[in-house]
Design goal:
The complex is a heterotrimer of chains A (598), B (230) and C (292).
Chain A lengths: L2 E9 L8 E8 L4 E5 L6 H8 L8 E8 L2 E2 L8 H11 E4 L12 H11 L4 H15 L14 H13 L5 E5 L7 H17 L3 E5 L3 H4 L5 E6 L2 E6 L1 H10 L10 H9 L25 H11 L22 E8 L9 E8 L4 E5 L6 H8 L7 E6 L2 E2 L13 E4 L12 H16 L5 H19 L14 H13 L5 E5 L7 H16 L3 E6 L2 H7 L2 E6 L2 E6 L1 H7 L6 H6 L9 H13 L10
Chain B lengths: L1 H24 L4 H23 L4 H20 L9 H12 L1 H19 L5 H17 L1 H6 L1 H28 L4 H10 L1 H33 L7
Chain C lengths: L9 H16 L3 H17 L6 H21 L6 E5 L2 E4 H27 L7 H6 L1 H30 L8 H32 L17 H23 L4 E2 L5 E2 L4 H34 L1
Antiparallel strand pairs in C: 1-2, 3-4
Helix pairs in contact in C: 1-4, 1-8, 2-4, 2-9, 3-4, 6-7, 8-9
């Protein structure tokens, strides 16, 4: 066993409960293991305990053995020899691609770890060259690290760690901050490393959709306890039968299979959800899913009527961009060219698009942070520039930036929110006395926090809470001004299934109250499940637009896994739930897929 | 080890030789030469000491961030010559982190920001004066942290000190010798800018001291950084 | 064109320092104008080196220094005019011309330095003698562009939550300070993360080495010997006093003997090395093309 964790229990100082409780498992040499669980389940803590240089302070009991050497602080014979062992044997890549880079050039970054190991220049030169060749980064070897894209940065981090030739590679949600294409590149690189170099990998990840097909060993952590230790199929069966929240993070094919396994005529229908007789052939990929479908459905159902009434009425849209053009510099090409888009009140519009399609630029134009050189952006029929100083961002428009941290400026979330709410209150009622404003602001703030379930983190520092919590706190701050139009930049990035569902519920409430929501995202699944309308931005233009059904059903590739799986068996099916319903309905001979409203 | 000692002996043996040789060789300009040598040679031992001392990785990165902030500050206010937060950030770093880190922040800010604003013979003098301003603030850290008024006075002093050093070099180098009247004339000509330095230092010190200080305090409490410097 | 990209960093460094120090301190028109000529010629080969505007400002700067100097020093013997009762002398004017040329030469050589010393070797001395400072410098150079990008993003975020809503400049300054505060928090937390990543990659282990991308080859030795030889010749000429000049009260130059002439020629050659190397590369390409 390359890595064995023996009965590890850990508690942070001043914490009321254990972060890890009696965790034991082992990872044999050459395996690709995945550690999954919701955020806050102890994944990161465990990885950091294994990588002793990053071990947090706290009470630790149990043993962590890597290659037979105990890595826990108490057991280390001497600090520096254990550190040296750890530096040589274990590599770690963390979530944020940006903050792990130390130096200003790619070549120096690759050499950095080797310098620390005290290797002579000749050896470093060879290793760096090897790594550059293996990762295909010769093309940007002489570049500055700040010129790289997020995906390239994360690949560089991986290469820099791998140059040190570790036996065990730990990864803490390494693709959470990447766009889907870069994330896929990164994962395929991991597979190569595992397969071609024989490096053992332990990766923490909560998005099972992408990682289950890669691995043969999954560990499920829940509130510090190891609930499941087995193959992907065993895990799928376990979370399904126990109604664990991670069940909704399973790949679409798996979810469909598990939901219908008792009704489906299949070779393995005998293997029911109980975890002691694991289903061997649980489908994990779209390919498996399609095979499942073709076995289950002998005939094609008639295509449903995908024409749903478009939500746009005759009234003025809440936010409309028409013929917008923008470029960053006179000599640069247009980022946006004749972009036209409108969002109505009470609607959730999802704008999808790849990297560099100009999504974020469009968002900052819509938010009035940048001005188009042609065309106009109108809020309730009034040009953004016509809003008097200081009225645009009060009770009108708000933007939740991609990094929710950016909105926080104070020492605690409470101070930040109080500031925002008292600004809103004094604007709403300019004549109110200071104490009345303070009282009202406090009451409003607490009400908002109740609504978003963030009351218990109010006194924390904004950098000390989890991504999902920070997202909600930032949303609270942004909502303080009671906007009628809410713009969100990648709201679903890096948060787990529960966080996503919660966020979606909040957005649903807001749209029900008549707020227009525009979210810009890479995430097709999120858009399909939660949007009222979707649009695709490509080459500076919105090239297709429609309800999620119409939109995704028309796309062949840029669509959800459920849609790709359903393909022409069940046209019009876009989300996993619909597919399940359609398939259970198919047995009775009617397709109701398109009756489901999103 | 032995080789390193030889390097060191060469290094410290060569220095006086270079200074004296230069002074003889550049007869007309020996004042300028010697001032330049003083400016460069003040930095060397302090840097050497910093080099030898153990600095944790996070501490090193915090220094890097402070230098970056102060260089970026020079950008932010590039349109207002003389009005920049460099001195303030250097002094604040020194007040919270100690004299030596303060010197390093000041001198490296000068060196690195000039890669964007233009290197020249003035670089060593900027390194020297900003470094010294930081180092001195580190020695006076306790009183400076306690009294706002003292901090303001230090800001004014720093503004004048910086200006006087730069003018001294200009006098020596361009005037070809020691000339008090030229020095005074230069000081007089630069007086408005000097006052601007002083005022901007005070403004930035008052605005940023608490703001950056409280964040550095958080690092100390939460991550246990920079403990031995205080 | 990076003429010294594959050379050991000592080569361009020795060249740059010897040209610069002599130009700065020698106080001799022969040296000054050689340095100026070398810099101007090399600068012409740099794409985007001279623009109409920059040439104008350089010449204006030179003229200003020349014209202003006589107002300060009245040491000369030959007055041209009297300004406010003080003589405006020919010698002082010529001294100013020389001073301006020297300032310009030094300025231009500093601007050439960007091309002369390849970027990855710029901090050669730090990397060699002070690896920790070199690492610090490297991380600052990484962080500055990042910081500017984040500053824009944070400002936008603050604008969109209504922080910048008041038009008066006091509020504006306060808002800027708020952004600065957010930026400071972010960058310090980022520093902690980077520190952790460094530690995870073994920073702090004893016996750290520095990766050198360069090697000292025989060609480097030849280059270095040539540069130092030429520099020594010019220093010898300077030390003999053959280059001395005094401007006040009358301009007196020392007698220039053969050794002095050789020294000046050596210095001029030194200053022409960058330009000649560029020309050599150009010619090599021309011939290569012709043969094809």
């Amino acid at each position: 066993m390359l890595l064995s964790i023996e009965n590890v229990t850990f508690r942070y100082p001043k914490a009321s409960r254990d972060a890890l409780r009696g965790v034991s498992f082992s990872v044999p040499q050459g395996e690709f293991a995945v550690l999954c669980g919701l955020s806050g389940c102890g994944k990161s803590t465990l990885l950091r305990l294994i990588k002793r240089e990053l071990a947090p302070f706290g009470e630790l009991s149990g043993r962590i053995l890597a290659d037979g050497t105990d890595l826990t602080r108490a057991a280390a014979p001497s600090e520096s020899s254990a550190d040296l062992f750890s530096a040589r044997t274990i590599g770690i890549v963390l979530q944020d691609p940006e903050s792990q880079i130390v130096t200003d050039t790619v070549w120096h970054e690759l050499a950095f770890g080797l310098e620390n190991l005290g290797l002579p220049s000749e050896v470093i030169r060879r290793r760096v060259a090897e790594m550059a060749a293996f990762f295909g980064i010769e093309g940007w070897y002489h570049k500055k690290t700040y010129e790289l894209s997020g995906g390239q940065k994360q690949l560089l981090n991986l290469a820099a760690v791998l140059a040190m030739n570790p036996q065990l590679l730990l990864l803490d949600e390494p693709t959470a901050q990447l766009d889907p294409i870069a994330a896929a590149d990164f994962r395929s690189m991991l597979t190569r490393i595992n397969r071609d170099l024989g490096v053992t990998i332990l990766m923490a990840e909560h998005r099972l959709e992408q990682v289950l097909p890669l691995t043969d060993h999954v560990l499920l952590l829940d509130r510090g306890e190891l609930l499941c230790d087995g193959s992907p199929a065993e895990l799928a069966a376990f979370v399904h039968s126990n109604h664990h929240p991670m069940a909704s993070a399973l790949p679409t094919a798996t979810r469909v299979y598990l939901a219908l396994q008792n009704t489906l005529p299949g070779p393995d229908s005998s293997a029911s959800g109980s975890s002691d007789t694991p289903a061997r052939d649980i489908p994990l990929t779209v390919r498996d899913g399609r095979a499942l479908l073709s076995a289950a459905t002998d005939r094609r159902s008639p295509s449903g009527d995908a024409a749903e009434a478009a939500a746009t009425g005759s009234e003025t849209p809440a936010l409309a961009a028409s013929g917008v053009r923008f470029r960053y510099d006179k000599n640069l090409p247009d980022v946006l060219c004749d972009t036209t888009l409108c969002v109505s009140a009470g609607e959730h519009y999802c704008l999808l698009g790849g990297n560099g399609s100009g999504k974020t630029t469009l968002l900052s134009l819509l938010a009035g942070l940048k001005r188009p050189y042609a065309g106009s952006v109108k809020l309730f029929g009034k040009k953004l520039s016509a809003f008097a100083m200081g009225t645009l961002y009060r009770e009108n428009l708000a933007l939740l930036p991609q990094q929710p941290r950016d909105v926080f400026t104070e020492k605690s979330i409470r101070e930040d929110l109080l500031g925002a709410f008292s600004r809103a209150c004094s604007f709403a009622d300019a004549k109110a006395s200071a104490s009345a404003v303070a009282d009202k602001a406090n009451a409003d703030m607490l009400a908002m926090c109740e609504r978003l379930h963030i009351t218990d983190i109010l006194d924390s520092h904004p950098y000390d809470v989890s991504g999902g919590e920070l997202q909600k706190a930032a949303l609270a701050k942004v909502l303080a001004s009671r906007p009628k139009v809410l713009l969100l930049d990648e709201p679903a990035k890096g948060i787990d299934v529960c966080g996503k569902d919660e966020l979606a519920a909040i957005l649903k409430e807001l749209t029900a109250e008549g707020v227009a929501v525009l979210s810009v995202t890479h995430d097709a699944e999120w858009a399909a499940e939660h949007a009222d309308r979707c649009g695709l931005l490509f080459d500076g233009e919105v090239i297709s637009e429609g309800t999620p059904h119409a939109f995704f059903d028309g796309n062949a590739f840029y669509t959800t896994a459920a849609n790709r799986m359903a393909g022409d068996f069940f046209p019009g099916v876009v989300t996993c739930e619909e597919l399940i319903r359609a398939m259970s309905g198919a047995g009775e001979g009617s397709s109701r897929a398109t009756e489901v409203s999103p | 080890m032995n080789r390193r000692r030889i390097t060191r002996i060469c290094f410290f043996g060569l220095i006086p030789l270079i200074v004296l040789g230069g002074a003889v060789l550049f007869r007309e300009q020996h004042y300028a030469w010697i001032t330049l040598c003083v400016a460069v040679l003040t930095c060397l031992p302090i840097w050497c000491d910093f080099e030898r001392r153990e600095t944790g990785s996070a501490e090193l990165m915090v220094l890097s961030v402070l230098i970056s902030l102060s260089v970026a500050g020079r950008f932010l206010f590039a349109w207002l010559p003389g009005f920049k937060p460099v001195t303030a950030i250097t002094v604040i770093s020194a007040m919270w982190l100690g004299a030596e880190p303060g010197f390093v922040v000041g001198s490296l800010t000068a060196l690195l920001s000039n890669f964007y604003f233009g290197q020249g013979p003035w670089t060593p003098f900027q390194m020297f004066s900003w470094g010294l301003i930081g180092g001195l603030a580190g020695l006076l850290a306790k009183p400076l942290r306690r009294h706002k008024l003292l901090l303001c006075i230090y800001g004014v002093f720093a503004g004048f000190f910086y200006s006087l050093v730069m003018d001294l070099w200009s006098t020596f180098w361009m005037g070809g010798g020691l000339s008090l009247s030229r020095y005074l004339a230069l000081i007089g000509a630069a007086l408005p800018i000097t006052i601007e330095y002083a005022v901007s230092n005070v403004i930035f010190l008052l605005a940023l001291a608490g703001l950056i200080g409280e964040k550095l305090d958080r690092l100390r409490v939460r991550y246990g950084l920079f403990r031995e410097h205080r | 064109m990076d003429i010294f990209r594959k050379r050991h960093p000592l080569v361009p460094l020795a060249l740059f320092m010897s040209i610069l120090l002599l130009a700065m301190f020698a106080q001799s028109p022969a040296i000054t104008f050689s340095a100026l000529a070398g810099a101007v010629l090399y600068f012409c080969t740099i794409r985007g080196g001279f623009t109409v505007r920059s040439v104008f400002s350089y010449v204006a700067c030179w003229g200003l220094v020349a014209l202003v100097n006589p107002l300060f020093s009245t040491g000369g013997a030959t007055p041209i005019v009297f300004v406010g009762g003080r003589p405006y002398t020919r010698e002082a004017l010529l001294y100013g011309v020389h001073l301006g040329a020297m300032l310009l030469a030094v300025l231009l050589w500093f601007r050439c330095e960007r091309r002369l010393i390849p970027e990855e070797h710029r901090f050669f001395f730090f990397g060699r003698f002070a690896p920790k400072l070199a690492l610090l410098i490297s991380s600052v150079l990484r962080f500055i562009p990042l910081l500017r990008r984040r500053a824009d993003a944070m400002r936008d975020a603050q604008i969109a939550v209504g922080v910048y809503d008041e038009p008066d400049w006091i509020h504006r300054a306060k808002s800027n300070l708020t952004t600065m505060s957010a930026l400071t928090t972010w960058s310090l937390e980022n520093a902690i993360d980077t520190g952790a990543a460094m530690k995870a990659r073994g920073y702090g282990l004893p016996g750290r080495t520095t990766y050198r991308t360069y090697r000292f080859t025989a060609a480097d030795g030849l280059w270095l010997a040539a540069i130092l030889g030429l520099a020594t010749l010019s220093v010898l000429a300077l030390a003999r006093g053959g280059l001395a000049i005094s401007f006040y009260p009358n301009i007196v130059t020392a007698h220039a003997d053969t050794l002095t002439r050789i020294g000046v020629a050596a210095y001029a050659l030194l200053c022409l090395i960058p330009f000649l190397s560029v020309i050599k590369e150009e010619l090599r390409w021309c011939f290569y093309r012709l043969k094809m």
